[in-house]
Design a protein that fits this description.
Subcellular location: Cell membrane
Oligomer: single chain
CATH topology of the largest domain: Calcium-transporting ATPase, transmembrane domain
Membrane topology: Multi-pass membrane protein
Protein name: Probable cation-transporting ATPase F
Radius of gyration: 34 Å
CATH superfamily of the largest domain: Calcium-transporting ATPase, transmembrane domain
GO molecular function: ATP binding; ATP hydrolysis activity; metal ion binding; P-type sodium:potassium-exchanging transporter activity
Largest sheet: 9 strands, mixed
Shape: elongated
Low-confidence stretches: 1-7, 232-238, 360-364, 893-904
CATH architecture of the largest domain: Up-down Bundle
Structural class: alpha+beta
Strand content: 15-25%
Number of strands: 26
Bound molecules: adenosine-5'-triphosphate
Distance between the termini: 69 Å
CATH class of the largest domain: Mainly Alpha
Pfam families: Cation_ATPase, Cation_ATPase_C, Cation_ATPase_N, E1-E2_ATPase, Hydrolase_3
Length: 904
């Protein structure tokens, strides 16, 4: 039977690797043939999980009705219907349906945005096909493929292991067991439970250490993960702290308003008003005062923020981070690949007898090197996990490809020696080790390459140019390494040992191996990214401190940090090494971490401590990471950022945001967008609340005065629905204000609705109250019909809102400075709203539906006068606020400048 086919219950843990290979017609050296792989892909389909069946459309639509506001509306609609007010009740039900459609559409949009983002981050797998190693998208894996996995990888399919070295896998995604499981390729009895099948690696689990190879036995839905996926399905939530806060605020507001409505109803009826009239009045009060557009506007603004960030190559994985980004105060960035290009080239090879310049990637004199240089390059080329792709380009980790390349240019075959064992590189160990057989002598060889101090630690001898060995002169080697580091170069040392102990690799881990022969140093450059210096400067201007956290040597790190402006020329005191961090006690750490801006030779565990130390000083920390062990620090950080290109799946999994280009400048861009999103949210709230408050007040006053309502419930619904969509929502597309990166970060604890916003809301709503009453009364006094007078009052609300919208385009500057056409949606929205108002006022059908009537030009002049007065008052208030804020910022900037200068 075809393996993996539907209905197939073939298990593999109870077969030997050889049997599994036979069954799947594959080969443990060459893997599948390419053509065979292609035809299997057609047969089995892509290696991706079948789309989980989400909620049905109908249920989703109905769910939109499950909000306090809608329930209020539905009850109002039913009662209105019972009172025989058919037109009113149909308008109310119309609004309920429109509201649900809006919510439904907005939710689907947000979901498809998230879906698109997910597909932007691809996962790849390393396979051997037709004998050649290559990286392919994980979706293209088929049963029978020979895959290689290493620390940080997500296991791309269900795999029967063939070989492994120190392989440990975190299977919590599958089994819930949080401790990594050690894997081996032993044969197991058939009845072994999934959690105990140590000779298998399952799709979706994470390799935490070591490496291995295996044969794919199940892909896509035919994996253990696929099984679970079918059972559970998955839904992504779109909630953020802010949306939650606002949802709570809306609910509380609804309760207060309902209570007010009930009191008003009872008071009115007690005074002898008819219950019907009072009911209409309190419905008006309720629908007017509840900000129905708020949740949708917030969600849409966030969704727009997400897509703006994606366009700037920052993929958001968890929505709350869009908000958090705007208040980040510290960015902790990796060096290699984020601040630098991660394009390494070996510049020099140094041995105890001097330096050989190898100028870029060309050989000085190809094939001419011997003795120590030869051995240095030989170790570099064999103690190496990079590989030559079919077209002859080296692939893999840039440090390793640089070492392969330079060796190849000197006539040394990359990975030419047969390897019998390996200890892969890890950031904690800072070295890699392999064992080989020397084909000429038959000797076994232990080769080590890595950070200079690590390699020297296990070496006792050094090799001279002529190939003889002598006792190690550690001081000379360290001095040479320091010299390269000062030029910002990364330096790796190499060493080897002939016929080591049998378990030399384990011995190294235990720290029991010594006596290696140091062969030389390879110094490589990795140019800083062209954009890094500007991005760092911009962060500094925005009040963010930038810290470099790297596994590299302190001197190298400091040289690069100086180059891109993280470290000032004279900032000697601000470099901390991992060793120094270990010696500082917990209580002193926050202060020390705050002061330093470069952290070198840092292990992933220390990264976690650094994040916590910064957070203890109220910092909002953005932290980048790429390795498997960075995951805890990424989770702890307020904004965990993973590298999309070089990052491991483990890091991406733990991150809130993934950079598709690994570039530091992208983080800065994301912070800028985050600030923009928050601004636009605030603008919407500041714009929308005065209308609700104003409407509520108008109705309340009418009830208290026991007089006709100047606006009817259906008219209020018209105002709220049309203006929220046509006017308010367009604020989500407002471009970022200039100078957005010249302000200090937003205090995350500061209320979104501060004093100036509250004052303005009250001011505008009182003006709306006075304005609408004045216009309404003037109409009545001039003998206009009640319908025409109400139409005029409705137009007051809409026109004031339209004028006020322009003021809200900027919270900090006069509205007119925002540039009229910078936001075409806004202009189009205002135009459409104007058409709508003319329709409401003059189209007979709408007159019937909304109980409106045509009004004359003198009424329009009065309406315009109110709008102009409101705008003038708002402008004056804003001017005063801007002046006050400038004075405050002046003092806080001065304070900020003082703290920054103290820090550096
Ligand atoms: P960061 O992205 O944090 O700046 P980094 O690349 O500088 O990372 P690591 O990758 O953790 O830091 O490397 C730490 C040290 O380990 C390096 O300075 C180097 O000496 C050594 N090293 C790096 N890559 C390898 C490798 N592939 N094999 C052996 N040693 C390595």
């Amino acid at each position: 039977m075809a393996p993996g086919a539907a209905g197939d219950v073939q298990t593999y843990h109870d077969l030997t690797a050889h049997e599994a290979l036979l069954l799947l017609e594959s080969d443990h050296r060459t893997g599948l043939d390419r053509d065979e792989a292609r035809s299997r892909l057609e047969r089995f389909g892509p290696n991706s999980l079948p789309q989980a069946k989400g909620e049905g459309a109908v249920r989703r639509f109905l769910r939109q009705l499950n909000s306090p506001l809608v329930i209020v509306l539905i009850v109002a609609g039913i009662v209105t219907l019972l009172l025989d007010e058919v037109v009113d009740s149909s308008v109310i039900f119309g609004v309920v349906v429109i509201n649900a459609i809006l919510g439904f559409v907005q939710e689907s949009k947000a979901e498809s945005a998230l879906e698109a983002l997910r597909s932007m981050v691809h996962t790849t797998a390393t396979v051997v096909r037709s004998g050649a190693q290559q990286r392919i998208p994980s979706e293209e894996l088929v049963p029978g493929d020979l895959v290689l996995i290493e620390a940080g990888d997500r296991v791309p399919a269900d795999v029967r292991l063939i070989s492994e070295s120190h392989l440990k896998v975190d299977e919590s995604a599958l089994t819930g067991e949080s401790l990594p499981v050690e894997k081996g390729h032993v044969l197991l009895p058939t009845e072994t439970a999934v959690a105990d099948r140590v000779n298998m690696a399952f799709s979706g689990t994470l390799v935490t250490s070591g490496s291995g190879s295996g044969i794919v036995v199940g892909t896509g839905g035919e994996t253990e993960l696929g099984e679970i996926h079918r059972l559970v399905g998955s839904t992504e939530t779109m909630a953020t702290p802010l949306t939650r806060k606002l949802a709570k605020f809306s609910t509380q507001l609804t309760v207060v308003i309902l209570a007010l409505a009930v009191i008003a109803f009872i008071a009115g009826v007690a005074q002898g008003e008819s219950a019907t009239d009072m009911f209409v009045a309190v419905v008006a009060l309720a629908v007017g005062a509840i900000p129905e557009g708020l949740p949708a506007a917030v969600a849409i603004t966030l969704a727009i923020g997400v897509s703006r960030m994606a366009r700037r190559r920052a993929v958001i994985r968890r929505l709350p981070v869009v908000e958090t980004l705007g208040s980040a105060t510290v960015i902790c960035s990796d060096k290699t690949g984020t601040l630098t290009e991660n394009r390494m080239t070996v510049q020099s090879v140094w041995t105890v007898d001097g330096e050989v310049a190898v100028a870029g990637d060309r050989a000085s004199q190809p094939g001419s090197v011997g003795g120590a240089v030869h051995w240095c390059l030989l170790v570099g080329a064999n103690c190496n996990d990079a590989w030559m792709a079919e077209d002859g380009t080296p692939s893999g980790d840039p440090t390793e490809t640089a070492m392969l390349t330079v060796a190849q240019h000197h006539g040394i075959e990359p990975r030419g020696l047969e390897r019998v064992g390996s200890l892969p590189f890890s950031s904690e160990r800072q070295y890699m080790a392999t064992t080989h057989v020397d084909p000429q002598t038959g000797d076994r060889l232990l080769m080590v390459k890595g950070a200079v101090e690590r390699v020297l630690h296990v070496s006792t001898h050094q090799m001279a140019a002529d190939g003889t060995t002598e006792p190690l002169d550690e001081g000379a080697v360290m001095a040479a390494a320091e010299g390269y580091a000062q030029q910002g170069m990364r330096v790796l040392a190499t060493a080897f040992q002939r016929n080591p102990e049998d378990d030399a690799l384990d011995g190294l881990v235990r720290g029991e191996v010594h006596g290696l022969v140091f062969t030389g140093l390879e110094a490589m450059i990795d140019p800083p990214r062209a954009t890094a210096a500007d991005a760092v400067r911009s962060c500094h201007e925005a009040g963010l401190s930038v810290k470099m956290i790297t596994g590299d040597h302190a001197t190298t790190a400091a040289a690069i940090a100086r180059h891109i402006g993280i470290l000032r020329e004279d900032g000697d005191g601000s470099v901390l090494t991992g060793g120094e961090i270990e010696r500082i006690d917990e209580s002193g750490l926050p202060e020390a971490v705050e002061r330093a801006s470069v952290f070198a030779r840092v292990t992933p565990e220390q990264k976690l401590r650094l994040v916590k130390a910064l957070q203890s000083r109220d910092h909002v920390v953005a932290m980048t990471g790429d390795g498997v062990n960075d995951a805890p620090a990424l989770k702890q950080a307020d904004i965990g950022i993973a590298m999309g290109v070089v990052g491991t799946e483990a890091a991406k999994d733990a991150a809130d945001m993934v950079l598709t280009d690994d570039d530091f400048a992208t983080i800065e861009a994301a912070v800028e967008e985050g600030r923009g999103v928050f601004d636009n949210l605030t603008k919407f709230i500041v714009w929308t609340l005065p209308t609700n408050l104003g409407e509520g007040l108008v109705i309340l006053v009418a009830i208290l005065l026991a007089t006709d309502l100047p606006i009817l419930p259906t008219q209020i619904l018209w105002i709220n629905m049309t203006t929220a969509v046509l006017l308010g929502l367009t604020l989500a597309w407002e471009p970022k204000e200039p100078g957005i990166m010249a302000r200090p970060p937003r205090d995350p604890h500061a209320p979104i609705f501060g004093r100036p916003e509250a004052v303005r809301t009250v001011l505008v709503s009182l003006l709306l109250l006075a304005g609408s009453w004045w216009v309404y009364r003037s109409e009545r006094d001039a003998g206009a019909s009640i319908d025409a007078s109400r139409t005029a009052a409705v137009n007051v609300f809409v026109m004031v809102e339209a004028f006020y919208l322009f003021s809200c385009r900027s919270l900090r500057r006069p509205g007119w400075t925002a540039g009229l056409f910078a936001n075409p949606y806004l202009v189009a929205g205002v135009a459409l709203q104007a058409v709508g108002q003319l329709g409401l006022t003059y189209v007979p059908a709408m007159n019937t539906l909304f109980q409106t009537a045509p009004i004359g030009w003198d009424s329009w002049l009065r309406i315009l006068a109110v709008a102009v007065v409101v705008s003038a008052v708002v402008a004056v208030h804003k001017h005063l606020e801007i002046g006050r804020a400038a004075r405050e910022t002046g003092t806080s900037t001065a304070r900020h400048a003082r703290t920054t200068s103290r820090r550096s």
